[in-house]
Q: What sequence folds into this?
């Protein structure tokens, strides 16, 4: 979640951009305060076959409707144009928010490739995010457990379970180049929204620590720029979340006992469109603190436990 605006417009949706020999990106035309420049679909492979990671939105899954990209076509068409002449071996999804997975079905129909990756999850999302309703139609052919792999011509992708942003979130490690596709779990432009009931702050923090203990060379997130110093960023994110927790505890010490007032005091200058999402992250912290016996609540009012 970020209060930066406007988002950059230097990258055209629909263009295919190479980041390294095995990695290309196609940007979806769905920029917003929650998706930054849009959802980034990653194409892995330079030989006879490829994998597609986070195929993105389609139709009503677009955050701002269903706009054409810079070439006047939809996002699925842009992906198919980028992989023309190569076989799609697998379509992988990090999680099932509707700016990530809905295009998997039309891509499967067009290519015959199996949908693999995260488990299906269909929950009513009571958070305020315009882009974060779950995709109820997601139907994987194979669910990957932590450490399971998908292989192709010159590439190997390994699933890294990272619950927290959602309970079914996976990252994917490209073994050949030590790159990690981080979905919404780690992004350089913003912190992830952790929105209960499916989002879980304790799980999110544990997943951050899991990534910190790895030795990945670079991160390719689903939104925003690549991360060239992964462990440095993750260390900062862990510190940021701990700082937010301390802020919440200070607010409770001062007698602030409802989430809207905490958000008002903690997020100075926040884009009003992001206020609800900030409240969801505060709630996630409070639920974690409650589970640890630090705070208690009654009638949506929170207090410190003596």
A:
């Amino acid at each position: 979640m970020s209060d930066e605006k406007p988002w950059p417009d230097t990258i055209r949706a629909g263009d295919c951009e190479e980041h390294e020999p095995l990695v290309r990106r196609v940007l979806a035309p769905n920029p917003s305060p929650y998706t930054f420049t849009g959802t980034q679909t990653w194409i892995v492979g330079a030989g006879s076959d490829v994998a597609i990671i986070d195929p993105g939105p389609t139709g009503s899954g677009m955050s701002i409707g269903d706009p054409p990209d810079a070439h006047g076509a939809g996002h699925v068409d842009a992906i198919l144009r980028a992989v023309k002449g190569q076989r799609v071996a697998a379509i992988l999804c990090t999680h099932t928010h509707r700016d990530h997975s809905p295009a998997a079905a039309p891509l499967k129909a067009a290519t015959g490739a199996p949908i693999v990756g995260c488990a299906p999850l269909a929950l009513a999302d009571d958070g305020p995010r315009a882009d974060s309703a779950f995709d109820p139609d997601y139907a994987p052919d194979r669910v990957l457990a932590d450490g399971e792999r998908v292989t192709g011509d010159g590439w190997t992708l390994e699933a890294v379970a990272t619950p927290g942003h959602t309970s079914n979130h996976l990252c994917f490690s490209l073994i050949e180049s030590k790159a990690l596709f981080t979905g919404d779990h780690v992004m350089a432009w913003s912190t992830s929204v952790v929105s209960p009931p499916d989002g879980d702050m304790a799980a999110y923090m544990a997943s951050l620590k899991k990534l910190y203990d790895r030795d990945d060379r670079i991160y390719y997130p689903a939104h925003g720029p690549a991360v060239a110093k992964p462990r440095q960023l993750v260390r900062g994110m862990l510190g940021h979340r701990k700082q937010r927790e301390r802020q919440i505890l200070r607010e409770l010490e001062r007698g602030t006992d409802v989430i809207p007032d905490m958000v008002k005091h903690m997020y100075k200058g926040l884009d009003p469109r992001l206020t609800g999402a900030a409240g969801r992250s505060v709630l996630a912290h409070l639920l974690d603190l409650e589970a640890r016996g630090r705070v208690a609540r009654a009638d949506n009012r929170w207090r410190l436990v003596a």
DSSP finds six helices and 14 strands in the chain. Residues 1-7, 60-67 have pLDDT under 50 and may be disordered. The radius of gyration is 19 Å.
